[in-house]
Amino acid sequence: MTDHRAPCSILLLAGGRGQRMGGQDKGLIEWRGQPLIAHLHEQVRALTDDLIISCNRNHERYASYADHLVSDVETGFQGPLAGILAGLIQARHPRMLVLPCDAPSLDRALLLDLMETAQQAPERPLMVRQDKHWQPLFCVLPKNLYPALLALWNDGERSPRRALQRLDALAYPCAADDPRLSNLNTPELLKAASTHKKD
């Protein structure tokens, strides 16, 4: 079967400080016998030939899960927008799908639909919105937005949501309780999710 999807880079964000996890590197925390990053890798590997991971430590452990690793230009864990900017520099394709490393319940159907929906407005960012709440770390970005995002960064903007809204982001609507978008970003959420069987 011919694949009609336009090529898309994929960036997995794993460069945070992990404050809610006691400073642990979230992407490497085990869940159901594998690091969280491995669950994301399993979902996205077949969808791209340009898989990027943003990480600021443990590079040797992340290397096997990506085609390329990137790190924040500035030290001190500058937040996800820094990782997104680093990913856009590296991305080889016209668009880049961005995902957080702590969302292991994502499924391929959602990822494919995000990528295909983004093709309908190729010059604008596409950002998930659950009810009234934007989820900026689930987005698809045109690579050519890098200069505009960098300008916002240089003006002091650090919020991915505000930055993408200022760049006329389109909403990709999802249900407020869509379990695929669950972030396992605290020990309590991680433990609770581990007790439920995966569909």
Describe the structure.
By secondary structure, the chain is of the alpha/beta class. It has a single domain (9-194), classed as Spore Coat Polysaccharide Biosynthesis Protein SpsA, Chain A (Alpha-Beta Complex), CATH 3.90.550. It contains 7 helices and 9 strands. The chain has helices at 36-44, 59-62, 80-90, 108-118, 146-154, 160-166, 187-194; strands at residues 9-13, 30-31, 34-35, 51-54, 68-70, 95-100, 126-130, 133-142, 170-174. A 7-stranded mixed beta sheet has the order 5-4-1-6-8-7-9, with helices on both faces. The protein has a two-stranded antiparallel ribbon with strand order 2-3. β4 (51-54), α2 and β5 (68-70) form a beta-alpha-beta unit. α3 runs antiparallel to α5 (146-154). The longest helix is centred in the middle third of the chain and has 11 residues, at 80-90. The relative contact order is 0.17. Mean pLDDT is 87; it is low at 186-190.
What are the salient characteristics of this protein?
single chain, alpha/beta, 7 helices, globular, about 200 residues, seven-stranded mixed beta sheet, Spore Coat Polysaccharide Biosynthesis Protein SpsA, Chain A, two-stranded antiparallel sheet
